[in-house]
Amino acid sequence: MSPPAAASRELSTVLVLAGAICAAAIAVVLVTFNGWEYYRTPLGRRGYAAEHQMLRPSGTIGLPLGIAGMTAMALTLPYAARKRWRPLARVGPTSRWLEFHILVGIVGPVLITLHTSFKFNGIISVGYWLMMTVWASGFVGRYLYVRIAKAERQAGGQNQHLERLRRIFELWHVFHRPLVYAMFAIVGLHVAIAIYLGYAQLIGAQ
Amino acid sequence: MEPATRRLPFWIMPLIAAVMHLAAAAESSAQLGALVSPGRLHKAHASLEGVSNCLQCHSKGRQVAAEKCLACHKPVAQRIAAKKGVHRNVAGDCVSCHVEHAGPDAELRPFDQAKFDHGRDAGFPLDGLHAPLGSKCASCHKSRSFLNAPSTCAACHADPHAGSLGAQCASCHSTAVKFAAAIKSFDHSRAAFPLAGAHTRVACESCHRNKQYKGMAFKTCSSCHTDPHQSKLGPVCTSCHTEAGWRTTKVDHARTAFPLRAKHAAVDCAKCHLKSAALVKPRFDTCAACHADPHRGTFKQDCGACHTESGFQKAPFDHATTAFVLTDKHLGLSCVACHKTSRPAANDFRGLRATCVACHTDVHRGELGLSCEKCHTAKTFEVKTFTHARIGPFFAGQHASLSCAQCHSATMQPARTAADAPAMRVGFTTTPTSCVSCHKDVHAGQFRAPCESCHSVEIPKFGTPTFSHAATRFPLTGKHAPLACEACHKGQPKQLTGLSSECAACHQDPHRAQLGQACQTCHTVQTFAVTRYTHQNAPALREFFVGRHASATCAACHKPLPARPSESKPVAAYKLSAACTTCHTDVHRGQLGSDCKSCHKP
């Protein structure tokens, strides 16, 4: 395990990298594909915008965004799996797994958000807001994680403050993890319906 | 894991969230489908909401196939199949244009109204006054489907004619003209009764009373017009009237029983139709129906025998049908030149005698009778062709070329009045034919014999070629023959009778009467020269003219007498003595006597 200071430094790098990827993705969609205009078009008329074929959720850009976002979200799971499945526990340092988890955990919701085209309907919107809650809680968790590491470093052992932080962090897990399960359940339904009705065709899709 | 974390099941949070969301969704849409729906359907498709209805539109693996849309939207399917309207060229699925799940009020049928060609895409052009409606679809399309809007006018417009004119509004109205103005732009020529002339200026309501536009009676004029002729002229108004107007009516009189020709054509209607034309059907069987008879009935109103419709004045009367055929100078005369009355227009053409004096004054005062034509012709008064038949020979020769007036002098008779024409003073029958009545007797009465005994009208200049001097007492011979008469007949007038036949009557005696009156003793008419005289003929001188005397010239002896002033030529002395001393000088001075012959011989 890397020292907490080094881990914190690595995390900052990951945040910067994730921010860059998100910014690039947002910039490309908003500017290159004229998403800025499209997303501001009222829903009632958006269907007839030129960008609709690209940027709608099942569009030529929207669908890959959704798939990429879902993939990114799926890639957050190996970090949880590593903590429960021992064979994985010995693969690489935990901090690297966490950094990757954070990276895809930040980028995924951004891509998914672009995929939604800011249109939130049905149960999938529940999944979306679950995801966004998890996404926001991730930042809280990361904050707690850094604070715990700092408190451990300062206290060197157990003290009351550190204990309280650890209890909060425990509660945080109860919040962060189950939402993800619910989210994936909804996403699974969403994807299944999309595939069933023919909306998930990367090639040959309208 | 800490025991604290196990107190709460990990799925509690998503369960709470899902239940809450379901409750909210179920309340709002009352449809389970809202859970999987990406958005509410348009209200037109509201009946399709719900999870059980997804496959009403969606197909497995095919998103939304067109056939599912068209299964409901049959009118659109028909239009696509017929390649008509906005869908005439569509290919692919409906959803490429019609986007659902965008909310109950989303636009399902997007199109640019400004670019929408209603004529091409809907088959109903929005032209003229319809054009502003291009941006107001709902003003005509009352129902949601655009296909339901009927194309009949009555679908949108109220029919002010209450259906009386049928449904073919466009036969009168067009989109280019406002409804109220259609009456002005209506092309009446399309109607069964095209308007022309004065009809075009009539207000619609004048004929279309009570807004009746259909079923109008127009077969006869009386359908609209009151017949001011009270049917007296029959029902066919067009034989006189045209649509150009009542006032400017150009009656085709040729179609009446009295066609107007020549001057009648230019006469105002009212000249004959004295009362309102409406009321009068004039009589026309006689001219007198309109024209006054200036002849006061003398011709029994057989006007056409003389007059034509070309004019009263120049009636082409054939005078040849009368007893007095007009020829030559009579032809050019106006009627009134002969047919005179106090009123020029009211000529009485009858009763005029055919004699010349009926018109012409007899300048001969009846002297020549009434048969003027014996001398005069209608070509001219001047008498050119007259021949004095009774005394034909008189007018032969030199008389033939005489003008009448050379004999018939205008001063033959005394003037009776100051105004008498010269011709009136000519006595044609009293003109004498004796020569002296015209010719002066240049012989001053020397002859008792008639002039014709010497003169003839055949010979010009009073020549007398038939006169023979041989018939007189003094036949002209010798040198007398070629003499001009005046050489002997002298005087003025010439003395032609009583002239002495003696030579001395004409010839002067150059011999101072020495030789007596018997000139012919020596002279002949052949010549004055004495050619045959010989002294030998005188017995007394026979002895004298011998010897040298025989050859001596006359003048050698007959010496001139002493000259007298009255004589131009010397006069020889013819009475000579035969004595020698008459000629010869006595050189002996009388010594030897006078008998010279005793010694001398001639």
Describe the structure.
Chain A is mostly helical and 206 residues long. In chain A, 79% of the residues lie in helices and 0% in strands. Chain A contains 10 helices and no strands. By secondary structure, chain B is mostly loops. Chain B is rod-shaped and about 250 Å long. Chains A and B meet through helix 3, helix 9 and helix 10 of A and helix 2 and strand 1 of B.
Task: Considering the chains and any ligands shown, give keywords for the structure.
heterodimer, A: 206 residues, mainly alpha, B: 602 residues, little secondary structure, 2 strands, disordered N terminus
Overview in brief:
The complex is a heterodimer of chains A (206) and B (602). Chain A is mainly alpha-helical. In chain A, 79% of the residues lie in helices and 0% in strands.
Largest sheet of chain A: none
Given the structure, what is the number of helices of chain B? 14
Write down how many β-strands of chain A occur, each being a DSSP E stretch of 2 or more residues: 0
Strand content of chain B: under 5%
Order of helices and strands of chain B: HHHEEHHHHHHHHHHH
Radius of gyration of chain A: 19 Å
Largest interface, counted with CB-CB under 8 A? A-B, 37 and 43 residues
Residue-averaged pLDDT of chain B = 78
Number of strands of chain B: 2
Shape of chain A: elongated
**Assembly type of the shown chains?**
heterodimer
Which strand-content bin applies to the residues of chain A? Answer: under 5%
Radius of gyration of chain B over all CA atoms, rounded: 75 Å
N- and C-termini, Cα separation of chain B: 247 Å
Which spans of chain B of ≥5 residues are poorly predicted at pLDDT below 50? 1-6
Structural category of chain B is little secondary structure
Treating each run of at least 4 consecutive H or I residues as one helix, how many helices of chain A?
10
Distance between the termini of chain A: 49 Å
